Amino acid sequence: MDGDLTLLKQFNEKSKKQATIYARKYHYDCDGEFSVNFYQMSSGLDDSTGACRLKYLGCFNGHALSQRALGFDFSTNEVTVPGYPMSRYSISVDQFRVEFKSSHIVKDLYSSLIEFPRYWESDFEKVKADYPEQAREIAELLDQRISYLASIQSSKDYKSSWVYYQFIGKLDALTNAINGRILKGTRYFYSPEAYFNKYSSRLVSLSAREKAELHRRLNRWD
After folding, report:
1. How confident is the model at residue 151 (pLDDT cuts 50, 70, 90)?
2. DSSP string, 165-184
3. Neighbouring residues of 149: CB distance < 8 A, sequence distance ≥ 6
4. Beta strand pairing status for 21-26 and 52-62?
5. What is the pLDDT of residues 84-125, one digit of tens each?
6. Whole-model pTM?
7. How far apart are alpha carbons 146 and 1 in whole angstroms?
8. Backbone angles phi, psi at 83, to 5 degrees
9. Predicted local confidence at residue 210, as pLDDT
10. Of 46, 177, 178, 203, which Cα lies nearest the Cα of 121?
């Protein structure tokens, strides 16, 4: 919103700060009450984790019906939260989670005046189209890991969910390998969890117990 950008400029003039990240957030059940929150980057963007640190500088409270005071509120505490770039000029503040059984990323988007050189892409086909060699290497790495776990799961007749939890146990290492090595120098970050959720069904089978339970459900008379 142009009005929110104007508020950011006024906030910087009054506070002598350099806020570059902002968003209007409405308060639930308060009939239009809102705040425009302001942040600045307090660390650089980490190539391996795809995250940076953001410092909360304050906000503008508008249309207040609760105990919040109208106008600018300047933070006096050192509050930092993680940020995850989601496009060239947007960032998710303090929220990043891949939905269960989905490649969708749960986020809380803010606008940024600073352009991010890299950002998170949830669609592997987009990564493949723009960087085919890197996408091939990612697929080989993750398919190898999933296949290894699936072979153990099959031999032990574990539930198929066992593969997921073992895969997630190495999520940080896989994320660092993909973003800190394979995709370094590109404009994307990519989550191995998003890949697992979309493609692991090609490699992971149901256990005998799960197949029997599925058969019972499909053939019962309800």
Report:
1. very high
2. HHHHHTHHHHHHHIIIIIST
3. 162, 163, 166, 167, 204
4. unpaired
5. 999 999 999 999 999 988 999 999 999 999 999 999 999 999
6. 0.90
7. 44
8. -130, 145
9. 82
10. 178
Residue 34's SS3 state is strand
Burial of 108 (0-12, 13-18, 19+ CB in 10 A): middle
CB atoms within 10 A of CB 28: 6
CA dihedral (213, 216, 221, 222) in degrees, to 10, reads 0
* Whether the predicted pLDDT of 159 surpasses 80: yes
Rg (CA), the chain: 22
pLDDT, the chain, mean: 93
As a whole number of angstroms, the distance between CA 99 and CA 124 comes to 15
In angstroms, rounded to a whole number, what is the distance separating the alpha carbons of residues 134 and 116? 20
DSSP structural state of residue 104: P
Q: Any residues with CB less than 8 A from the CB of 60 and at least 6 apart, and which? A: 7, 11, 35, 36, 38, 71, 72, 73
Name the band, by pLDDT with cuts 50, 70 and 90, for residue 71: confident
Structure tokens at 2: 């142009």
